[in-house]
Request: fold
Amino acid sequence: MPDLPPELGVRLTTDGAQFCVYAGHARSVEVCLFDEADDGTTTERRVTLRHRAHGTWFDTVPGVRTGQRYAFRVDGDWDPDRSLLHNPAKLLLDPYARAVEGGVHLDPALYAHRVGSDLRGDLWVRDDRDSAPHMPRCVIVDDEFDWGADDFPRRSLTESLIYEVHVKNATMLHPDVPDELRGTYAGLAHPAFVDHLKRLGVTALELLPVHTFTHEPDLVLRGLTNHWGYNTLGFFAPHAAYASTDDPQGALDEFKSMVKQLHAAGIEVLLDVVYNHTAENSREGMTLSWRGLDQRAYYRVDGRGRDIDVTGCGNTLDLTHPVVARMVLDSLRYWVQECHVDGFRFDLAVALARGKDDGYDRDHPFLVALRTDPVLSRTKLIAEPWDLGLHGWRTGQFPPPFSEWNDRYRDATRTFWLRDLAASASGGIGHGVRELATRLAGSQDLFDRHDRGTIASVNFVTAHDGFSLADLTVYDTKHNGANGHSGTDGSNDNRSWNHGVEGRTDDPDISAARRRSMRNLLGTLLLSTGVPMLNAGDELGRSQRGNNNPYSQDNEISWMAWDLELWQEDLLETTRHLVRLRHEHPVLRQRTFFSGRRVHADGSTDLAWFGADGEPMGERWDGPAVSVLQGLYNGAATSERSVLIVVNGSAGAVDVTLPAAPGATAYELLWDSTDERPTPPGDPVPAGHFVQMGAASMRVWRPVEAA
Reply:
């Protein structure tokens, strides 16, 4: 026997297959091989793994080839107080399985302890019912795939537009995608959808979870599903239900083909990955894989064997354990090396970096491993910088090269354009323009440490979690009744404004004001320094009917509708226009923060802020009644065109004097958010002259320099 165990998972050999799995506290491990008999029944053959080293069990089973269905059974002590929950009656999935066939069919037998029909029971009584009839199977697949000339696009974050999208939602209703491909990996790569992405200017798709997942028991009992997929059942296998084929090998190949086709269009693929918890929930939950293999190794537990939950999902994976950290790193490398994925967004990333004392550690071994790994350190790494544990909000505190979802950006933008505008409309005052300016300029207050630069900030106004862009302007409160939680789920801090009427309305003035607010939010997002992330469908004015947490809605509430009204076509063209402006003006997407220092012989600074009177802001920053701001982004230092962005956050029209900045003789209007659809530029306006800004509006000007 070798001194070290082989690689975890399954490796085909010349005469069979080598199985290797970690079960550090087990007494025995069996691999279970499933075959279909001639009469259609399934037989199970159990083979005891004979070899053990460092808690890892392994052996070679002759005659096993590609397509074999398999799983494990583990025996050992049953002592919940010591986190020992071994039960050989429970079929366990291989944590390293690269394909999973079938689903979890809810039944009391899936629980390692005795439960009744209500799924409640006695944790200290081991259950002897066989769970195999209710469990999916792992499948051995072939990793070979014809990648042809595929290469990683490696788009710079300074030129990136990330598009957060759910595989199924994107094309379920798309009229130009064939019925059999709608809602699948193949549908996402269909020319009709790819053309939409290219015309929009998208450089990267960020896919909601595509790792194999299952549904929480409480959802199943209520006839719902975990539509978003944040309930992982396998970290190496693509979710089979998103494939247009029932064949496990075909599902893996379809995922790879999707990546290949998106790469050919110059579009990167980023995966939203959930390594903070698993589908097994708390120790009172089902036993599907990791819990039955080694509860003490895989999960954070206290001295009495209870789960330490900082995820809100019942359990937390323990990345201080080398086996768990290795599993996550192996999974990430698999998706990069075998599936050509370009990067990852880490769900509840703070949970991955909690140390032995449960506090967040920016130098956590897992983060260090990511940053030093020769493969993973060259990919795009994006953190959701919070979890639900103590001191879990850590925006701006991840190390380079991580970028982070910037929730401060989301909140500031919504506050200025919606909550403060609502206050202005009712005669009140807002919060002023200081924080909006900080977010427009790249959030230097959050990300200036450790030379991270502007690309550390992933700017977003909406995401999968929360109101859609359109719903931000239509609803003051969430309408989540369809989720079955009596409307208590979902955030209450939406910073939305219904513009006077809750829900849809035929009032033309209110409808026009809502559309202008959408354009203001999009304009701010797409012209801010940092990395913009667009929530799929926002460019189409997609509504979720006021549901700000549609995680369980696999229906028209979540699916993107493609039968557009005129205002939606106008919004789409506005979004394309704004993306083009961003692309054409690199000064808006530079890598380094603005310094405010002089960058040109004429005395101009790289970024200058002016009030409505065209004079420098000076000491006027902190006035809550200040709702007009002009930002002149100077491209002189990089030989690029300059841009002037002007915002009016008040409910009334205002006169704005365009600044008489050095080198600028006049200004050419590039975009006005009061326009339903972008219009061609008019005659330039001389510097120092005033223009009237419409109520609650935004304009983009380009300085005309002296000849």
Notes: Residues 381 and 402 are 5 Å apart (CA to CA). The longest helix spans residues 508-527. The mean pLDDT is 96. The longest strand covers residues 26-36.
